[in-house]
Design a protein that fits this description.
The protein is of the alpha/beta class and 680 residues long. Among the domains are: 193 residues, 3-Layer(aba) Sandwich (Rossmann fold), CATH 3.40.50.300; 264 residues, no CATH class. The chain is built from 25 helices and 11 strands. α8 links the parallel β6 and β7. α5 packs across α6 and α5 runs parallel beside α7. It is elongated. Bound molecules: adenosine-5'-triphosphate. The site of adenosine-5'-triphosphate has 13 residues, from β2 and α3. This is ABC transporter domain-containing protein.
Length: 680
Amino acid sequence: MMPPENETSITRNPASVLVASRIQNACVRIDHPPNSSSNVSPCTDDRMPEQRQSTPARFSVLRESLRPITLKFQDVSYTVKLQSTKGDCCSSLEPKPGKTVLNGVSGIVRPGELLAMLGPSGSGKTTLLTALAGRLPGKVSGVITYNGQSFSSSVKRKTGFVSQDDVLYPHLTVLETLTYAALLRLPNKLTRDEKIEQAELVIAELGLNRCQNNVIGGPLFRGVSGGERKRVSIGQEMLVNPSLLLLDEPTSGLDSTTAQRIVATLRGLARGGRTVITTIHQPSSRLYRMFDKVVVLSEGCPIYSGCADGVMEYFGSIGYVPGFNFVNPADFLLDLANGVTPDTKQDEQQDFHSRGDHHEAQTSIKQLLVSSYKKNMYPALKDEISSCHGGAPVRSATGALTSRSSENQWTTSWWMQFKVLLGRGLKERKHESYSGLRIFQVMTVSILSGLLWWHSDTSHIQDQVGLLFFFSIFWGFFPLFNAIFAFPQERPMLIKERSSGMYRLSSYYFARMAGDLPMELVLPTIFTTITYWMGGLKPSVVTFLLTLSIILSNVLVSQGLGLALGAILMDVKQATTLASVTMLVFLLAGGYYIQHIPNFIAWLKYISFSHYCYKLLVGVQYSATEVYECGSGAKCRVLDFPAISYLGIDDIGWNVAALAVMLVGYRLLAYVALRMGQPR
Ligand SMILES: Nc1ncnc2c1ncn2[C@@H]1O[C@H](COP(=O)(O)OP(=O)(O)OP(=O)(O)O)[C@@H](O)[C@H]1O
């Protein structure tokens, strides 16, 4: 059948309007919308047989009462500012063009329903999903409500979001990943053992028992399969028993059986009283039949929003019917969203070369479909959005304030979050922190420098001072460059977990600091012990301990600077470049290489922690009355040695204070930068 050819065919068509209206109403498949007490049992039939067998009859958080959410979105539009393509310095002054990614998308999803967003690549599915999850940066126009209310932190905690890329720690096993998620996300009223039990139940529910002790894996080493990884991501969200679950292409890259299993799980979750929304690329007809509703996007504009099994009727009513060899409704919808109809398809096969004409024809078909949606489908949808009051009422005369304020609290205490994050961080990073390569690096340098400075004494004071300067610089560079990677590497995980309201930023931050400490302090301690005694520095335990504590303070300050640079720039390349320039400046201005720095630039040494460290190291090594052999039998005061006289070994208190200020200041800066760059 031919598509409509003139404007009259897309004007408000009473027959199409009737169909569209029926499609909207027909979507309400659940006769008795789930309520907080009886909403979870219907899912059993939809689950895979293996899941039905494996679900034990223990208490499951997945079977606890829910707070159903009806999600409505009306006229959602979103525009992004495009980066200028010109590389010259003045391009930033030009106004940047905007790109409309979403244009007037509407829909309604009730508890118990599974909605699929379909559309060609780049049509705006992910953007719409992110907007519905309340995670889209910038201004989204239109109205999005959750049980009639705007997005709030209580909705956030009841929302599960599974992104297209699985953000998981590669060195943790499936069981560990879900256990840590359970410990962090489940409320304090459950004991630790009960939380672990919930993680095991989710593993059983998702059919992950066989691989529960396998590591997740990453780009450099193999772990669980793509489908298993995806199910782990879904499991992390299932643990919070979300009322609203959003998933971005959960089946992409999976074989059809695994994809079928995942969509069956989603449908089961929906039937348990949740509102489930997923984007999907190319569903098979088997998968398509599992959806309750679909939203079809074409270049950011909706061409259909309603019941999944009403698409044929709707498009038939406006003049588009599939060809005789039609099998899959999803293929038909995607063709339409691309502006391809069965007729144009046939033409394309006949005449492969007339691409320009086809492009115009496709554009006009897309425009026709969008106009048809606006005229025939949108009014019915709009009426339904404004008339429907589905879902649990969030406001009751007395209960509203209490339940809201209690839901706004974190599910677990600060201390609990700290402990779990510390344990998880130590487990995930033990390969990195205790890497043989790192230990080898430090041991080699320490032994080599011990040999180079072998038993130097005060008659070679220049060498001794050089060793002290080397201490300050080596333990300035090494921790700085290690720390730079911390936050940029963890950023995706931090964004994901903080967006779900999993923990406070402060508990994460302190757990990270504490987790890094042991190895950050053990290596310099071993290094100093070896080099100090091999290098022939003052053979006094007190002086050694003072030297060690100065070096450890230097390590902490330098690590703080690295963390701050990483957190501010969130880009390893930029941060390492800046760090190398900074350390070069500190090296030169430290007071060892150049002893007559011009006054106008001499202030640089005051911002260098290596300078303070070096001064303190010299200060504890030599006393004011000490002498050294400065010629054949002649004795000179240490204080008169040019390098030391220029440096000065007085005002130890000021140097300690400067290091202390930097120790706190850099870490505070790192925290503030992280807070500013993260969702609250
Ligand atoms: N921040 C942004 N800056 C520039 N362009 C953007 C931005 N966000 C989205 N877009 C553009 O908007 C369009 C829709 O993107 P989106 O990721 O939502 O599409 P999609 O339908 O999910 O695609 P796919 O199926 O390939 O994942 C794309 O053309 C994308 O390039």
